[in-house]
Amino acid sequence: MQSPLEQFVIKPIFPLHLGQYDISFTQSSLWMVVAVVLTTLLMTLSVRGRALVPGRWQNIAEMLYEVVFGLTREYLHEEGRKYFPFVFSLFMIVLMGNLLGLIPYSFTYTSHIIVTGALALFVFGMATLVGIWKHKLHFFSLFLPSGLPMLMIPLIIPIEIISYLSRPLSLSVRLCANMMMGHTMLKLIAAFCASLVFLSVGLKLVGIIPFVVNTALMGLELLIAFIQAYVFAILTCIYLRDAIELH
């Protein structure tokens, strides 16, 4: 039986090297392209007609739009419209990666720290640049809470800096770990179900139990796919709000 971690191994489809660097087009790259194409089709074709009574796909597109727009309006207030395209793009990248990974024989690119880490660093860099551009040197007052006693400054400032610099790590690990653990559990229980098929008729009835559990886990993973994309969008809004309002 294959290891449940085999599904996370990146394999090249079109091997390609640039000097000593491996820039092969992998299955991870392929599913990223699929995610971009599907997102583009969903958000363009489904709302092209702008029907007064929206159909199924238009409802989905509008629901996703309203969810993210509500987040940006709640956390960023009047600045929300400005940063909505950025937050919505990140939300859809994460959501599509999570959902496509539930398709058998696909690949979950959000289960790799290199992908989630790149997204988290992009968010971190964007928030930091926005804060510096908006507040100039005053941005660094973010690391010095107001009303702090002088004696506490040498202790609190390093803690605030470390906390700020750890944001991309926590953002990326949270998403990566949730996707990897969920898919590993699904793989293990699915393999257990398959192995019971070859046992005696009496024990085949026992196979119903892991099958039901696996079905329930699949439903849970669908929910987690949305929740993790939603959390990623919320934290992006919070980081941007901190940079804009210096909270």
Which descriptor suits the 3D outline? Answer: globular
Beta-strand proportion: under 5%
Query: How many β strands by DSSP?
Result: 4
Largest sheet: spatial strand order: 1-4
> What gyration radius follows from the Cα positions, in whole Å?
22 Å
Report on the biggest sheet: 2 strands, antiparallel
Rounded mean pLDDT score = 84
User: Terminal Cα separation, in Å?
Assistant: 52 Å
How many domains, as an integer?
1
What pattern of helices and strands is seen along the backbone?
EEEEHHHHHHHH
Helix content: 55-70%
**Helical region count?**
8
The secondary structure category is: mainly alpha
Poorly predicted parts: none
Describe the structure.
- It contains eight helices and four strands, in the order E-E-E-E-H-H-H-H-H-H-H-H.
- The chain has 247 residues and is mainly alpha-helical.
- The protein has one domain (4-245).
- Strands 1-4 form a two-stranded antiparallel ribbon. A two-stranded antiparallel sheet has the order 2-3.
- Strand 2 (17-18) and strand 3 form a beta hairpin.
- Helix 3 (80-100) packs antiparallel against helix 8 (208-245), helix 4 packs parallel to helix 8 (208-245) and helix 6 (167-196) packs antiparallel against helix 8.
- The longest helix has 38 residues, at 208-245.
- The protein is globular, with a radius of gyration of 22 Å.
- The model has no long low-confidence stretch (mean pLDDT 84).
